[in-house]
Amino acid sequence: MASPILANISPQNILLIKLRHHGDMLLTTPVINALHQRYPQANIDVLLYQETRPMLEAHPAIRRLHIIDRKWKNEGAWRKLAHERALIADVRACHYDLVINLADQWRAGIITRLSRAPLRIGFAFKKRDNALWRFCHNQLVSTADHSTLHTVEQNMSALAPLGISREGARVSMHYSETDKQYVLSTLLENGINSPFIVVQPTSRWGFKCWEDEKVAATIDQLAKQNRKVILTAAPDQKERVMIEHIQSLCRSPDVVSLAGKFSLPQLAALIDHAQLFIGVDSAPMHMAAALDTPCIALFGPTKLQHWRPWGEHNRVIWAGDYGPLPSPDSIDTNTQQRFLSIIPVEDVVAAARSYLNE
What we know:
The protein has helices at about 20-25, 30-40, 75-95, 105-115, 130-135, 150-155, 175-190, 210-220, 235-250, 265-270, 285-290, 305, 345-355; strands at about 15, 45-50, 60-70, 100, 120-125, 140, 195-200, 230, 255, 275-280, 295-300, 315-320. It is α/β, with parallel strands linked by helices.
């Protein structure tokens, strides 16, 4: 467990490790922001998966990103080993004073140990209660209360040995001026020069999605000539087909699809300029909350305590308030059942209108 507070240390080089999905990476930014505030002189680096790089690459407090590409395993054992050895060499060359490992994978724990950092903080995960995990870290923080905490609060608790409180934790999403200008020019090319709403109804998991017909009915009540509704999605073919179907169901002419047109930082720039964001439990929903764009988040059988939007100007509409839901731990993630279907259109429209002052 965490030993006495190390409030007097002054690290020059800090490495943060997190190996998860896009939304998870965005929710590490409160840790980055808190570290930068406490140690403004320190270099802060992050180790993450290649595909999640866009979530952090524009963050002004990050010096560099160390990358693990999950495609390495397809290159054969020797090539993969060469990549891993090069990664360890890069990490060691940075001479980290402090490594904070937020991940639960053995790979992350071993990299933490091999970094040779004198202070190595990790979590005392129940499934890692063994000598090797303790050997990888010299400060372990209890996870006993994590089931009751938001993911932001869980991540921030890793800073307890440093005397850094999780109070005031702030998520942030950043994008470049180039991304902003690209988005603004794309809007003009599509005839959008007035206020707009962004709706992202897609997710990589179908069970997190609302019914297409209800999405279309909501859009029809919110879109009008001087306020377009922009549909967005990942470039994934399945998501784009879903967007095409939703658009085909809309009667309003004031609906524009930009699905698959933007990178994640570009999508952030779009959301940042929107009047309102409506979406499901997904990375773009967390981006909207981080950007302080008014956000309506539709949730089904997800652990709401962990994954609700963090910050102000957010409204969660949970399917569990309208009927029984299965336990999140029992969900077959490959199911196509739409558990959000019991959420009524009128409640989503009313929430949207409250943000639009209508």
